[in-house]
TrEMBL record, chain A:
It is a multi-pass membrane protein. The lineage of its organism: Bacteria, Pseudomonadati, Pseudomonadota, Gammaproteobacteria, Pseudomonadales. One of its GO terms (biological process) is transmembrane transport. SUPFAM superfamilies: MetI-like. Pfam families: BPD_transp_1. Residues 86-274 form the ABC transmembrane type-1 domain. Coiled coil: none annotated. It comes from the Bacteria. The chain crosses the membrane at residues 21-46, 90-111, 123-145, 256-274. Keywords: Cell inner membrane, Cell membrane, Membrane, Transmembrane, Transmembrane helix, Transport. This is ABC transporter permease. It is found in: Cell inner membrane; Cell membrane.
TrEMBL record, chain B:
It comes from Pseudomonas taeanensis MS-3. GO terms for molecular function: ABC-type transporter activity; ATP binding; ATP hydrolysis activity. It comes from the Bacteria. Keywords: ATP-binding, Nucleotide-binding, Transport. Gene3D superfamilies: 2.40.50.100, P-loop containing nucleotide triphosphate hydrolases. Pfam families: ABC_tran (PF00005), TOBE_2 (PF08402). GO terms for cellular component: ATP-binding cassette (ABC) transporter complex. Residues 4-234 form the ABC transporter domain. The lineage of its organism: Bacteria, Pseudomonadati, Pseudomonadota, Gammaproteobacteria, Pseudomonadales. The keyword Transport applies. InterPro entries: AAA+_ATPase, ABC_SmlMolc_Importer, ABC_transporter-like_ATP-bd, ABC_transporter-like_CS, Mo/tungstate-bd_C_term_dom, P-loop_NTPase, Transp-assoc_OB_typ2. This is ABC transporter ATP-binding protein. The keyword Nucleotide-binding applies.
Amino acid sequence: MSNLLKSLFRGAAPLPGETGRFAMGLSGVILLLAVLPILTMIVMSFSGASNLDFPPASYSLQWYQAAWNTFVSPDASDVLSLGQAFTTSLLVATLSMLFATLIAVPAAYALVRCEFRGKAAALQLMSLPLVFPMVVLGLALLLIFDSLPFQLNTSRLVIAHVILALPFVVRNCTAAMLSIGSEVEEAAKMLGASPLRAIVDVVVPLMRSGILAGMLLAFIISFNEFTVTYFLYNIDVMTVPIWMYSRTVSSLDPTVFSFAVLIVLIDFALIWALEKLVGEGGVSF
Amino acid sequence: MSGLVLENVGKHYGSACAVTDVNLHLPEGKLVCFLGPSGCGKTTLLRMIAGLETLSDGEIRLDGQDIGHTPAHQRNFGMVFQSLALFPHMTVGENIAYPLRLRGVSKVDQQARVTELLQLIQLQEMVDRPVAKLSGGQRQRVAIARAIAARPKLLLLDEPLSALDAKLRESMQIEIRQLQQRLNITTILVTHDQREAMTMADIVVVLGEHRVQQVGTPIEIYRNPANAFVADFIGSGNIFPATALGSGRVGLPGGAALQVPICESIQAGASIKLLVRPEDLQLSLPQASAGNCLPGTVTFVRDSGATVETTIECSGVSLTALSTPCQSIGLSIGNPVSVTIPAAACRVLTA
């Protein structure tokens, strides 16, 4: 958390006097609004009551207990166990991460190094998923996948997640690529490396931090994705966010809060790893 | 013909011309310097020789073989870039071994060559250092060692010393020149610094306005510039207009006349330009003008300690004379003076 705070105020010298106090106050309010849902969730996960009143009347670890039980001995009434959902989520997130990276690295190279017709349009298209309404995207993908003559299960989630993660991965890779001068690549060629070898030996290692940042972001985006996945999941293939949602619509089960805390912890761990790996100022979200 | 031959080489981007009509022969084992102001096309020319830029016109041959369209990585030329372009993710040793690794040299032989090269550049103990931890001069040496590791046929240096401070640059110039002579490797150096060119080159190619202006040894270029561009670019010179009066006499704008035998063949009445180097002018206390000794007035004195530069207004021409402090006759602004312009020091320039 302190890392996150530091990164939020990175490089900002405190403003003097009135303005400074106002700015600090405003930042505090915004930050509070940002963490409020997470705090609520954490508080609720320790609730000792059996309803969803906030704040809880008493505190206990009962929902963590319940969550653990759900995990080790799946309820027969559940369509799918959490364990299976978790496995699916990990698989989809890993595949999305790999494919998004495999597309983004050459794309970033081309966008920075090459001049081609329609480069501006390509850049615009890349960031389209950022502004496109998720519901529309989900619906559109559903229509496309259903019109296919064959059935896709896990792979259609992967395709959707790759589309969503790509702008972030491309942006991180492009930022890394921009800092690499063309002279190191030319130097490799002069020393006898073929153009492809120069990219593999010199450009990719120098892009490393950007690629890692992009990979982790892709993983986090896929792991947390709900809206588009909601249109595309089925009984056999379900991710953790969908599984949790299905628990709340049927019974408003507070165990989801303990699961949610777990997932937030995983996300924090990943973001922390990201900052450690890439260092300050390396990630563009 | 052995060595590197450039024939009618040119490069243009659309309608913009970078360099045109270059014909050169670079003999083996020599250090050739491409000298010119920025934007004259010298770097483009070097990049075409390297294979990093395609030729628009002409041919490049190495030992009789056409290499004009061989890709850069198949030419086996070493190159040191202006930014040095060391690989920041590799150590000093890995940087130097990289060209050997690409050629499938065994680990043991790589090691041996790296050790040999580090000895040559006197950085033996730096082998495992990341390149970011080196000083400017050390990086410079590593870049050179990496460029020559695979025993290239040609070494190309693109303003490699421009990032160093003046003192270090001077010592690196000597170091590179000695290294080049010891290895006897044909080298092309691109620079805009004429002192660097004079220090290092066997042959200087002066480039300007997108074409070759003159090719010659440093002293030839300095003593006998082919045209006004070269005369103006190399060294400081007094270039002034004059009129040929026939039988070796030339008239200055202010009416005085000089006896310059090399002007004998020039038709009387023709406008010419004369070049006299500041160190060739002799100043003396006012005396009766005779021959090439003319009266003038001191307009400025720049005494930098090691040399004294005196600017004199003389027959409608502003001349600068360079003298050592012991030759100096203690002139100050406004003093009358006599200037001797030795006829042998005068050069006639074509426009």
